[in-house]
Amino acid sequence: MKSFYGTQLSNPLMLGTAQYPSPAILEQAFRDSGAGVATVSLRRESGAGQTFWQMICELGVLILPNTAGCHTVKEAVTTAHMAREVFDTKWIKLELIGHTDSLQPDVFQLVEAARILTEDGFHVFPYTTDDLIVGERLLAAGCEVLMPWGAPIGSGRGLNNEYALRAMRAEFPDVPLVVDAGIGLPSHAAQAMELGYDAVLLNTAVARAGDPAAMARAMMLAIEAGQLADLVDPIEARDMAEPSTPVIGKAFLS
Ligand SMILES: CC(=O)[C@@H](O)[C@H](O)COP(=O)(O)O
């Protein structure tokens, strides 16, 4: 498994901490799924106060603070500095929103903020589009991980552009890649792993499910299934049929 800035994840599920019905259900979702990373929004969840930060720290998983809700480089950089103080970590999930309806990242500001934060010693996890050139620019700015979107945040649409995500995997074979946002179902998470992605980050699909803890577990099982399938050389899809038993009386190929 690839490492994330030198750290091996205990497993490839990164789980958000927003919108759960209660703190107890949030904790249960982490326990039942065994998620390896918790992402937490400094701006959106700052109202919850010290008790909430404490609870997140006590989950016993790696913390990936994020800059959700930031629209400018200045806001994102300031929020990243706050996060480093609160959670004592160099990791920052850099979100810089550029479009109100789709919450599409502003990739121009994203690259600039990534460069500033990297020079300042941060380990940046950029939430980006599935654009190859933006990916290249983020790597050139010092990022060692890329987090392309599956679909707009909270949409639950799954992988909107499988072609582009596949192209990113092929273009950056050695870079840890995480599908971030838009996952709605376990099958979407499995699909991301089948493409050879290294992890999946999701929040809404679990937090807003009828039973968040059970959905978190379902996501983890799907991620494990997709990861295993990717490792064991799956067959290529074909247009034409091919008999499963090509030679009468011969059950095995060899
Ligand atoms: C919590 C978080 O980091 C989100 O901004 C993230 O992008 C997840 O998106 P979904 O809620 O669509 O899973």
UniProtKB/TrEMBL annotation:
Which residues participate in 1-deoxy-D-xylulose 5-phosphate binding? 154, 181-182, 203-204
Q: What is its EC number?
A: 2.8.1.10
Any one GO molecular-function label of the UniProt entry: thiazole synthase activity
Which reaction is this enzyme known to catalyze?
[ThiS sulfur-carrier protein]-C-terminal-Gly-aminoethanethioate + 2-iminoacetate + 1-deoxy-D-xylulose 5-phosphate = [ThiS sulfur-carrier protein]-C-terminal Gly-Gly + 2-[(2R,5Z)-2-carboxy-4-methylthiazol-5(2H)-ylidene]ethyl phosphate + 2 H2O + H(+)
The pathway this protein participates in, as annotated, is: Cofactor biosynthesis; thiamine diphosphate biosynthesis
GO biological processes: thiamine diphosphate biosynthetic process
Q: Which InterPro entries match?
A: Aldolase_TIM (IPR013785), Thiazole_synthase_ThiG (IPR033983), ThiG (IPR008867)
Where in the cell? Cytoplasm
| Active site (record annotation) | 93 (schiff-base intermediate with dxp)
Gene Ontology cellular component annotations, sorted alphabetically:
cytoplasm
UniProt xrefs under PANTHER family: THIAZOLE SYNTHASE
Q: What does this protein do?
A: Catalyzes the rearrangement of 1-deoxy-D-xylulose 5-phosphate (DXP) to produce the thiazole phosphate moiety of thiamine. Sulfur is provided by the thiocarboxylate moiety of the carrier protein ThiS. In vitro, sulfur can be provided by H(2)S.
Q: Which family does it belong to?
A: Belongs to the ThiG family.
Oligomeric and partner information:
Homotetramer. Forms heterodimers with either ThiH or ThiS.
The entry's protein name is Thiazole synthase
Q: Which organism is it from?
A: Ruegeria denitrificans
Lineage of producing organism:
Bacteria, Pseudomonadati, Pseudomonadota, Alphaproteobacteria, Rhodobacterales
